[in-house]
Predict the structure.
Amino acid sequence: MLKLEFDTDEGIGTRANLGMIVLETDETLESEFARMADLDGVARYHSRIPMVSEIRADTLARMLDDMPASAKLFPSSLSFDVIGYGCTSASTVIGSDKVAAAIQSVRPEAKVTDPLAALIAAGTSLGVKNLGFITPYIPDVSLKMREKLEHAGFTITAGGSFEEGDDRVVARISERAIHDAALRVAKTADTPCDALVIACTNLRCLNVIPRLEAELGIPVLSSNTALVWHMLRLAGITDERPKICRLFGTQLST
């Protein structure tokens, strides 16, 4: 057996190393993350976090205790530029500051974002104010998220929810149903929407958004598009890819 010589290089993340903490129950985010962050030199890594299928405030809050362990499972040999926590409803219930603190307790070098923080950053960068708002959540969770968006300075001019408490069912809501719900909510707005927000990382929105933007003439933001866009921009990746959605043709406001 020959002893072979070798050299080493920087690895695949020559531009950025991105980590995504995905819910145990999520079936959508990993696939959409891969499509949106498919860029040369951008490395993508996933970890999972325990989560029961019932989406309630108490089950969402439990994830805070598991975040450090999930973040610790990313390769220890790497320095991460950004770590995203992939749960919109839990970010709303727990709070973005606590999410960041939990992850940075084991990954202090990484910037941290989550869908709620990313949606706020996206709306600010797009310069929008009046939002149409769609969730799959039960009413109390939807209300908490609406309050967080309003506290951030946005006005919800129309809203709707599928009111589904089982994350396994949320992952099966069809693209057609999401499309039709978005049109219905936008058309019922008291004041015309500047943008439409579709919350939840388990909703399959990526294929629907370009069509909705063409039909409505406004930006359409999903939890996943906002989260991945925010991660890329926080990592200093400024590539504009407006074919994904209008947001991906936008830079991060400072």
Observations:
- The longest helix spans residues 139-151.
- The first strand starts at residue 16 and ends at 23.
- The mean pLDDT is 95.
- The CA atoms of residues 57 and 201 lie 16 Å apart.
